[in-house]
Amino acid sequence: MSLDTENTQPKAVVLLSGGLDSATVAAIAKSDGYQVHAVSFDYGQRHKVELKAAYRVALQLGIQHHKMISINLNDVGGSALTDSALAVPDYDAQSAEHIPITYVPARNLTFLSLALGWAEILGARRIYIGVNAVDYSGYPDCRPEFIKQFEVTANLATAAGLTGEPFKIIAPLQTLTKAEIIQWGTRFGVDYAQTISCYNPDEQGRACGRCDACHYRKQGFMDAGIPDVTIYAPE
Amino acid sequence: MSLDTENTQPKAVVLLSGGLDSATVAAIAKSDGYQVHAVSFDYGQRHKVELKAAYRVALQLGIQHHKMISINLNDVGGSALTDSALAVPDYDAQSAEHIPITYVPARNLTFLSLALGWAEILGARRIYIGVNAVDYSGYPDCRPEFIKQFEVTANLATAAGLTGEPFKIIAPLQTLTKAEIIQWGTRFGVDYAQTISCYNPDEQGRACGRCDACHYRKQGFMDAGIPDVTIYAPE
After folding, report:
1. Which cofactor does it need (chains A, B) (predicted)?
2. Is B108 among the domain residues?
3. Selected residue of A41, A43, A74, A75 to mutate for chain B interface (largest B Cβ count, 10 A)
4. Residue B51, annotated ligand binder?
5. H or E stretch including B112?
6. What digits encode the pLDDT tens for the residues B49-88?
7. Which of A43, A114, A163 to probe by mutation at the B interface, max B CB count within 10 Å?
């Protein structure tokens, strides 16, 4: 805690899922000169190994303030990522244009809202999020229009947004390909072996190698010309 | 469940806190011809009696679908409504222009986001919320500008908002005084004895009579010329 008061850097809240993208964003926020406050969500996701990955990433990047917020999105239902009655499908190029069953309704909106509340309490005015509009799964709440509009709403929703320096939502990966993200993160010192992207990992946290997220991640390492450090479950 | 399939009315999600305003809104949504799906939030509030009140209100109004979503806003902290280390102040006319300590950062934004996710799953396109910009406690997320911007954001955040009939956020109390709200609700058959507004009720759910919320409620019944059915704790 004494470190908090000694640290004169401005604060930023970073949404840290334990995946490749958010780990890269956390490293970027640090490199931008912010004192990083990471937040992860225990939202009833099937892939709990993601939360362990978030802890490892925070540790690896030297982030000293990491908060876990519990919210039961199972109560809301309707997605293969939170509802164990629905199966996670393999990647399918034909269906890549549609919004997949792994879409969790209004998830980024809910997470950003909670991050905003925490940022207001901390006195942080920057919120970093690893959404990406290129190699993504077609989720509406990953698009730049959504992020931009959320920023407007955030400043109307809060006391801080009305009176002080306005909130800014920073999404530095927005226009990058997965390969570019991996190249940036590698430069900023991210150890991707600590991260997990898979929607359907086994109990040891090994990636399935077959879902959407595995597909984009594999391809990203390949295109970046960087060895893929991901641990895959045996076929 | 069979009722759901037989009911051909369009669906609406109503944020139901157990307070006077949201009970009125639920009655209005019913009278507007919607099949009402009520949602309440167990968010670590001190005044848990509020949740019991929400059940009673749903029952009294004949709402058959009522969902409780758990989210721990204590994890976020910073408000007298969720943090037991902070005292709920008495109403003070001098300080009524400032944002009070009972403000929960980004609460309405978070609740609306969760309600939106549920609405998307249900196939509802209307979300009713009992915010009020007249006799309110100065919360930024009760203002019409906020509600309007949230609607724009909601339609960008969701799959349904992109492809189908857009979401509409309906805040029918926005320009009404507390007295007018009580007059409307009484006409629509709300039994206000079932509701609770107090920020600091005792264990039996009796109102303190001294906080902001009690102040506005008392005054509302008085101005409406309707007997105050609220049960107050003895001084």
Report:
1. Zn(2+)
2. yes
3. A75
4. no
5. helix B107-122
6. 888 999 999 999 999 899 988 887 776 765 555 554 555 5
7. A114
